[in-house]
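User
Please review the sequence:
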Amino acid sequence: MTMMRLRLPATSANLGPGFDAMALALDLYLEIEAAPAAQFSIDASGRNQDVCGGLTRNLLIETYKSVLAAEQKPLVPLAIRMQNGIPVGMGCGSSAAVRLAAVALASAFGALDWDPAAIVERAVQLEGHPDNVAACWHGGLTISAGGEQLAIVSIAPPNYWQALLVLPENPLATSKARGLLPQSYERQDVVSNLQAVALLTAAFALGRADLMQAATRDRLHQPYRSRICPLLPALLPLVGSLGVMSITLSGAGPAVMLLTQNPDRNELRDAILERARPVCPVEILPAGLNHQGSEMHISLVTR
């Protein structure tokens, strides 16, 4: 019997000015083990078990089925064991990780034999934009461009940079956050973001922590989403102190990501809680930066 194991990292997209173009892989994982079975089953543990473990309206199973159907391959039910460490509905790339996992499973158990580029391309098509998918598969800071030909570049961030995710209680649908954005922008706002995203790329490539505050200023999405993501304006004053290099929405929110360098963890935690307390209860989730991307293993198991 064929057994497939997958380990896919969380991702934080946009990083301020890199709207729909940049994402960073984090050291939090969706881990899946799957094998053919008589019927579908999911044994879920970790975060959001109610969402991950249900057999109806399950994104993993629905995506897996849709890929096999589109390729006119027979449906192979799977027995799935899942350990989820990625917060769902928080802007941490949970849907990108699930879609990548589903496409990889369909490739393996549908005898599609797709190479990594084909798996990523199909997952991007299903997700609708490449940023989280690219970072999840390749790791590091990824810069991605879609269109007629998908182009992805991955930059390894400094090993000593770390992330803190500040998570509110309630999730936020990406569609709701995207619905707040205007249809057009002033030229000066677009130019400002182009300057910032170029600086952000250089800051990661060169390990320049001193550039990160200026490099993560955004005029395209964060000012509009702050209305429903109030943690961002509440925490922004911490940038430049306590080892905090930058503070941005994680993806479309509502989570906020702090990138840090040698912080005093206890002092920073207290400062975050003090500023977040008037807004909402929060969970502070530390995360390293992932450099290797997704891992996929296929083995033969005798039972």
In short: The first strand starts at residue 2 and ends at 14.
